Amino acid sequence: MRLTNLDLAALRSFVTGIDAGSFMQAADRLGRSTSAVSAQLKKLEDQTGSALVRRAGRGLALTDQGELLLSYARRLLSLNDEAISALQSPELEGWVRLGIQEDFGETVLAQVLGQFARAHPRVRVEGRIGRNSELREKLASGHLDLALAWDDGTAKDDDIIASLPLCWLGPAEEGPIPLWQPGANADQSEPLPLAVLEAPCMLRTIACTHLDQHGIPWRIAFVSPSLGGMWAATAAGLGISLRTPFGHPASLRVLDPASYGLPAMPSLGLALLRAPKPDNQISNHLAAIIRQALQDTLPAAWTMSQLKFTPRQV
Fold this sequence. Notes:
By secondary structure, the chain is of the alpha/beta class. Helices cover 42% and strands 21% of the residues. The radius of gyration is 22 Å and the shape is globular. The relative contact order is 0.14. The C terminus is likely disordered. It comes from Thalassospira profundimaris. Keywords: DNA-binding, Transcription, Transcription regulation. Belongs to the LysR transcriptional regulatory family.
């Protein structure tokens, strides 16, 4: 059997097209013509002997074979990019200190540190998973070089790398949570129970402010110093929580605001912040890996969005 060498450029166009939702948008991202990108897709279909995509309304949908290839394509491209980075990057030596918001600690941190360590084995990385306020304080005091944190409205546009929708979360199983019922008499309705993080917490403030603006009574039912504790309380039905759809455990589900009379929530910017000192090559290379890891992990619509959270949205 003669083995076929898949075309990496075609694979990149394929992945970009699926992430973007159309090959026309993929062509814009890649700086190529739409016809050239379509030709690359045709080449992949010829190489694999399978149809990879099909029309679904105005968008694209993967066939079973396309879904299988997409998984392999991401891994092949990731390994290719890692190899190029390791070969072309200067031989760096030193250390860098990275802080990551705890929502991304379990998913992004391992991928980022592993890739960076393989590309730059002589660089020592010190990582910290923490709350937003803690990361910003350590960044300002020079105890961190980079921090992946929620934007509080002060980040520069170039620092915003994603915009994640906020959502209400409740137990995966329907439970007897005394949720606010739209149109109910406020004197007869139970206040909405909330599971929150200890103050100061930006998302806690956003949740309470939006509930106040919509005239929905609430109470703090559970307070935790860590995200894990808040997840456990929410899963147990002690209260609902406000977070993003990313990274929550299977024991929780996203609540439909209209079904529970809850306010719809804005998106929240995710920023990659740097310490107030001159850039250095180590930080630059680590920042590039973080950006790529998030682009690979988050839905394309979140990384493409230009929406930015500001205090006026609260």
